[in-house]
Structure formats: structure tokens, C-alpha cells
Amino acid sequence: MLIFFVDRFSLALYALKDNLRRTLLSILGIAIGIAAVMAVGTISKGGNYLIFSELETFGLNSVWVFRDRGDKDPHRRVREGSGIDNDDYQALTGGCCPAVQRISAVVHASFSKRAVIQAINRYSNAQVQGVDVTLTSIANDVVIQGRPFRARDITSRRAVAILGPTAAEDLFGAASAIGREFRIGNRKFTVIGVLEAKSRDFLASIGSSGGQDANNRILIPYTILQQMLGHKQINFLHAEAVTQTQADSAAQQLIAVLKRHNGHNYSYKSETMATYITTTERILNGVAMIGIIAASVSLLVGGMGIMNIMSTSVLERTREIGLRKAVGARRSDILLQFLLEAVVISTLGGLIGLTLGTIASIVLAEVTGFPLAPSLTVIVIALVVSVAVGIISGYLPARRAARLHPVEALRYE
Amino acid sequence: MIALSDINKSYRVGELVLPVLRGITLKVAAGEFVAIMGPSGSGKTTLLNIIGCLDSVDAGSYSLAGEVVDRASDDDLARIRNRHIGFVFQLFNLIPRISALRNVELPMIYSDVSPAERRQRALHALQRMAIADRADHAPSQLSGGQQQRVAIARALVNTPELLVADEPTGSLDSGTGREIMALFGELNRAGTTIVMVTHEEEIAAFASRIIRLRDGIIATDEGG
Ligand SMILES: Nc1ncnc2c1ncn2[C@@H]1O[C@H](COP(=O)(O)OP(=O)(O)OP(=O)(O)O)[C@@H](O)[C@H]1O
Ligand SMILES: [Mg+2]
Known about the structure:
The structure holds two protein chains of two kinds. Chain A is of the alpha+beta class. Chain A folds into two domains: 2-55 and 279-411, no CATH class; 69-266, no CATH class. Helices cover 56% and strands 15% of the residues of chain A. Chain A has helices spanning 2-18, 20-55, 86-93, 135-138, 151-155, 165-172, 201-205, 222-229, 247-262, 273-316, 318-326, 331-368, 376-403, 406-411; strands at residues 62-67, 100-108, 117-119, 122-124, 127-131, 143-146, 160-163, 181-184, 187-195, 217-221, 236-241, 268-272. In chain A, strands 1, 2, 3, 4, 5, 6, 7, 8, 9, 10, 11 and 12 form a twelve-stranded mixed β-sheet that branches. In chain A, α10 runs parallel beside α13 (376-403). Chain A starts with a helix and ends with a helix. The mean pLDDT of chain A is 85. Chain B is built from seven helices and ten strands. A six-stranded mixed β-sheet of chain B has the order 6-7-8-3-9-10, sandwiched between helices. Chain B has a four-stranded antiparallel β-sheet with strand order 2-1-4-5, with helices on one face. Chain B is globular and about 50 Å long. The mean pLDDT of chain B is 94. Chain A binds chain B through residues 3-4, 7, 11, 14-15, 17-18, 319-320, 322-333, 405-407, 410, and chain B through 49, 52, 54-55, 74-75, 78-79, 81-83, 87, 89, 93, 95, 97-98, 106-107, 109-112, 114-115, 154, 158.
């Protein structure tokens, strides 16, 4: 069987030499097509990776619930306020909502007079947020130094803080911040933890970083922040759904509870990470689709080139086909011979395309820093596609050759 | 060896049906050397193609070496041609890109002979045709007579019982033609049945039997 193939292969290579220029053109067409397929594959994979790793910094199952400011209709009694207070929060943390895994209150530090954040003679412009013990887990915040909040920190209104890396750097330089003190306004806080740096560069570059610098934050217990601000309001709720698909139910369940409490005064809305993820996936798929169309066009052109070469080759070699049939070649022998020629051309193109594509993705990986290593799947797909292009574009000419009548073929001038 | 009975064959050209063979009945015994002659257009090539299992018949029956072949499938005919029939053409029909040796190996590729045996048998066939020293030459580097020797080597390499030749000396000068006929004579004495079409009386004289066609029927059948 192997011998059988080697024979036909060596004959196929003879034929390629005959039409070298046209063959090279077709090979190029396939190569460009395959390289494009690979580029699309690796770039969309890299893009996916990048965007999802940034989306992950918000927590992929995140749900945000806040007052719908569009509710200010003149008949409503209460116009001001965040619409959520500690009593509501109490109800929400009591296992009200089966689709909710965890929930944290978030309170903004909206001081009437701007409070200076200061450690001896260093200053920070970080955003101060009052949060519950759960927030770091919900938002995928990793405490790399020190410790996360404990329940007692919140309930006892302890003056402790967890700093984002930028805030830590601004206040304490390169030295460890753990155990050090700083002030927010005239209130003294002790640093108990420092957060790992989060990258949202890409999202920030398209204006979707959520309006805050994730690294320049100071987290303190919401209870102490409320005390400093002198109110019991909660600006919004940051919850984590049990699963990404239950994000909507989680939001609805939370809103239902809030409405039961305050329905005649406020209405609420929610945002979920799941909708952003869906949108992102749609955009990424769109980009991949464009790439796939472009790749298909070059493969089509390459395939048509091969079909053209093979048709010419069949015509030029009509007498040879007649002779081969006379000395005993069956239809399947002739079919296979020409199919193999087509597949050799397309696979050569595929291999060149793979090489170009690999080099391109290595260069791209260097330049962009995306992890763009071409995967085995992409390589296998590229090779399967090139073999398939060869078979598809070689089939019709090969079948024409196989069906030639030996007498007619031998008479051909 | 060959038994043709009331063979009819016509070609359709547009509306016109052109009868080419009109009732050919013919027996050729194993070991015969037959020449087919006749004016141009009398159906010699058509008859030879049928005998060589290259073409089908419209009516009549044909059995070759006891096997009825007029209803055989394309692939069966290919196998029969491969095992039992050797072909020699006026224009040699060597494949131009490949060496003489590879040309001779061709029929064995389609009967799955191992490469080593193929090479050895091809060289042996070229030796018999006294052209082994040109085994590595491309057909374009050979003279007409040398090309025809390579073609005969190719026809012989699967040791067929029957050799069919359509004007094998038609493209050669008379001296070279006689050399080719001497080779045919040798093959025939070694047991190969030969059916050959020719225009030349001098070439036909090498055969032991001469069949003359006229308008698709056998006009005379001498010798044998
Ligand atoms: N494929 C074909 N289609 C139509 N007519 C054909 C075909 N092949 C042969 N013929 C006709 O059949 C007749 C016999 O042809 P054939 O080739 O057998 O003649 P021939 O005796 O070999 O002639 P020549 O000595 O010139 O080679 C001719 O009239 C030819 O035109
Ligand atoms: Mg003829």
C-alpha cells in the first residue's frame, strides 16, 4: 500500500515541475489563506484571552444593583437618597435570593469637604470605597500582602484599610504598607492588606474600565465610612450570582426584595457582567467572522488556481492518461493520481502558510505581549483545510481524467 | 486465443450513423503472427482496438483466451489489458517526463509489483530490446527506433500472451522498421501471439497470416 502511494507521489511531483510557475501561484494562494486562518485563530484567541482576563477583574458572575435615577417622577415623595439603606441590606444578606452567592454593600466616600488622604508627608488621590467583608471575593480582588477583611472589622467599624497597589505605593513607597497608618480626613486608618495589581489597560483604552482605576483604590469597612459620612445609605450593591447564567435572576431577586421595601418610593436597575460578556463575545465573533471570510476568499482563490492547473494538466496529458489506461490503470488509479497532485500542491501551500502564520503569531506575541502561541488545534485545522482544498479543487479535473475513454484519449492531438 | 464472432461497430457523427465494422468473424490461435492490412478508413485501427480490449463492440461477441470480454466492466478490461495484452503504437506513446526505465515500469505499477522487482524486470525487458544502455534517458533523447524499442519493452514487461501493434513501423525508416520486425519475429517464436496493423507489404511479410479489410468486412485472409 505504501509502495503504491510512493509511486503515484513521485509521478505527481514530476507533474508539478512541469507547471512550476502556475503551481507556485496556487501554492501562494493556499499559503496566504492558511496563514490568514491561523492569524485569525491566534489573534481571536489572544483577544479573547486578553479581554476575558480583564473582564475577570470585575468578577465574571458580578451583578450590580442600584437606584434607577429615572424614577424621579414628581408624585413620588422621596427624590434624594440612594434608595438602599442598611435595613434593606440586612434583608438582602439574610438568604433572600437563591441565585445570589454573595453580596456586598458599596458606599462612596462623598465627603462634603474633600478629605485629604495622607501618610506623614505622602498623599494619595485614591478612590475610597466602603465595602463589606465579601467584596474582595466577589470582585476577584486578590490580597497579596496582609489579610482580607474579617466580619469583626465590619461589625465593629474598625479603622482598617486594604490598599490598591497604586495607593500603597503613593502612601508608603516601596516599603511594606502592612501595619502602617494613614489618614482619611482626620480619621486614622491601619493598613491590613494590599491588593494585587489588576490590568484593565485594554478596557480602559476603549473607555470601558468602569470609570475607576482598579489599582488606585482604598477599601475600608462600609460601616466606618457611613459613620464618617453620618448616614446609613448604601450607594449600590455588588453581588455575585451562583453562576453566570443566573446573573439575571440574581438581579431580579435582589430588586424584588428592594421593591418590597421601598417600591412606592424608588425603582431600581441592574447591570450584570454576563451582558458585557455576551456583548464582548458577539464583537469577538464578528471580528473572527471577518477574518474567516477573508481566509476563505484566499483559500477559494488558491483552490481555483489548483483547479485551473489540474484542468490544464489533464488536458495536456490526455495521451498519457490514455496510455496509462491502455497499460492497465483503472479509473480509481487515474483519479487518485490527479487528486494526489492537487493535494500535494495544496498541502505544500498549507505548510508554507503554517510557517508564515507561526512566524507572524510569534512576532505578534512579542510586540503585543498577548499569549499568542499557535495551538495544535489550529495547526491540525490548517492542514485538514489544505488537504480538503486540494481534494475539492482537484476532484472535478481528476474525475474528468478518470472518465476519459482510452481510445479517445490516445487519439488526442 | 482470439475469437471474434459477427462483430459490428459504428460511430455516430451527429445524425449520421457510420458503420465501421460490419460483421467481422475471426479466430486467431495462440502463437500466430497476424498482419491486418487494408485501405485507410477500412476499420483496421477500430478492429485492433477491439481485439486489444480498448474499445467496446455494438454487436457480436469476443472472447480472449476463453474469457468472454464484450460485456466486461471498464475495470475488468483494465486488468485484462494489464495482464494479458501488450500495446505498441505508431507514435510510441512514451511519457515524456520520465526515463525509459520508468516508462517500462509503468504497467507493473498497476499490477502492484515491488519496486525492486519492477526495476529488475524493466531492465531485463530493455536488455531483450538491446536498449538497456539508454535506460536513464528521457524519450526526447532517443531516436524513433530507440523509442519504439523502449515501447516494445514496456509492452512485454508483464509477459502478455498477446501483443497488438498499430502501424509499429509507421514512423520509422525502412531499415529501422525491419529491425523492429526482427524483434517481433523473435517474440513470436518465443510464443507471443501478435496482431499488427500495417500499410506496408514488406512489413506484413514478416507475419505468417495477412488479413485484408475493405469497408469494415474481411476481404481476404491468407496464410495461418
Ligand atoms: N471516434 C470516431 N468518431 C467517428 N468516426 C470515427 C471514430 N474513429 C474512427 N472513425 C471512423 O471510422 C472509420 C475507420 O477508422 P479506423 O481508424 O479504424 O481506420 P483505419 O483503417 O485504421 O485507417 P488508417 O489506415 O487511416 O489508420 C473511419 O472512417 C474513421 O473516420
Ligand atoms: Mg489506423
